[in-house]
Amino acid sequence: MTPVPLDKKIFARTALAGCALAPLLAANAPALPSGLNGTRPNVLFILIDDLGATDLQCLGSDFYETPNLDKLRAQGMLFTNAYAAAPVCAPARAAILTGRYPVRTGITDVFMPKKAVRMTRLVERVTGRNFAPEEVTLGDLMKKAGYATACIGKWHVGDSPGSLPQDKGFDLVVKTPRKDDAGDYKQIRKFTQAAIDFIDANKDQKPFFVYLSHNAVHLPFTAPPDLIEKYEKKLKPGMKHNYPIYAATIEYLDRETGRLMAELERMGVAKNTIVVFTSDNGGRASNWEYQLVTTNLPYHGGKHNVYEGGLRVPTLMYWPGRISPNSTCKTPFSQVDYFTTFAALAGQDVSKNPILDGVSITPLLEGRKLPPRALYWFYPHYNIAALYGKSSIYEYARPVAAVLKDGWKLVEWFEDPLQVELFKVDEDPCEYTNMAAHRPQKVQELRALLEAWYPSVGAKLLEQRKDFDPNEENSVLWRWGEARYESVTDEYAPPEMKDYKPVRTPKK
Fold first, then answer.
1. What residues does 329 pair with on adjacent strands?
2. Domains of the chain
3. How would DSSP label each residue in 280-343?
4. Distance between CA atoms of 350 and 90, rounded to whole angstroms?
5. Measured between alpha carbons, how far is residue 191 from residues 214, 224, 346, 377 in Å?
6. pTM of the prediction?
7. pLDDT (tens digit, 9 = 90+) per residue, 464-496?
8. Residues 6 or more apart from 193 whose CB is under 8 A from it?
């Protein structure tokens, strides 16, 4: 099969200094990029919103029941080091759809027009809201390759003409309605049925690419009453996961995913379809209605931060005859890799595109390895919220960047150059031990990588606020350890944190 060049309509606009850092994608092309009998495989990409790294029974949950997804894991490959490209949904989705780090697309956070203005140490920039009209997405890529394309569910990377899914190569677009259908919850059944109908309509015509993007399990939470009652009765003291309505939502999602997989078998397309099941970012390890939504333990943190709990996402891949059943891959990869991977499977040549950040991970599907490389994160935003009452919520995030290479992860906080953390996450995935003071050369090495990466992707660092007043009532202060202790229970907390008491600066 001869690779087909992809149009380069965006590349003239975004050529940047430092593009030599971009990977040579052709070097990672799969040995056998085709499906059965030389045909190109169908692609079913199932994206869940805010599902945590341990939010499936097969991934260690002691509360959630996910028999269908456990079956998918047994039939395919589990990726234990699959990373989101950002700790929140919009930039993560931008990375999935374009194969580029979010900062290149201009979408680095969730756009919130009514976001509170606070006295912060750094001056925060407003994130982009829409894809540029010339941005190339997976929809464009797969449509050009001759695939029937569908975007079903949450889009979240543009609501203006030129940035909508129908403008980005998708033949079918099923949007999120304002209200749930009666008897459906988070439109899970509706979206699943739309995917089934689309596949059935196209299975004999051309290969299909389905981007099935659920709104679940994002708040606000809703689920079948009988499932909520089931988990209320199941709850016992000491359970790691313990929010009944969240558990019910996950089981409802599991049921519908199982129905979709059964339909693939019934229609006779399962053997030539690669199924990817994953999440946009880590689980919400914060409160909703005075209840801890979920926990990503033993991974630290969750959505909104760049600790492992905020970035590691549950990822299962299934492809009969190509992916070994019940296999596990420990090689780190990022959401920016999906674009290049699907390009390889679809026979599209992207090897000469200078501004794609991903590599094809098809070698991993066959048990082979990837060349060593670094993964990067850039989140130049504050996300601090505390609401009380029926819809109580607590969120806490600060401008930060991170880099991971050879098992070493550096976290660099922009508010203070001295605030740096270094973890050996392949040995310490819980990020208990900050090695920065003990490995200064490693800190220097990884910081050099970040400093070279910033200009290569057009990342602009934040400026200090000249009128910052730490004693103003609306000010946001940093106290080392204060944010870390919020989501670490005594069971998992390192000894030095157990008696920690936050220190606050009194008002004048």
1. 79
2. 4-373 (3.40.720.10), 378-497 (3.30.1120.10)
3. SS----SEETTEE----TTS---TTS-SHHHHB--EEEE-TTTS-TTEEE---EETTHHHHHHH
4. 24
5. 7, 16, 25, 31
6. 0.86
7. 888 887 777 666 654 433 333 233 333 333 333
8. none
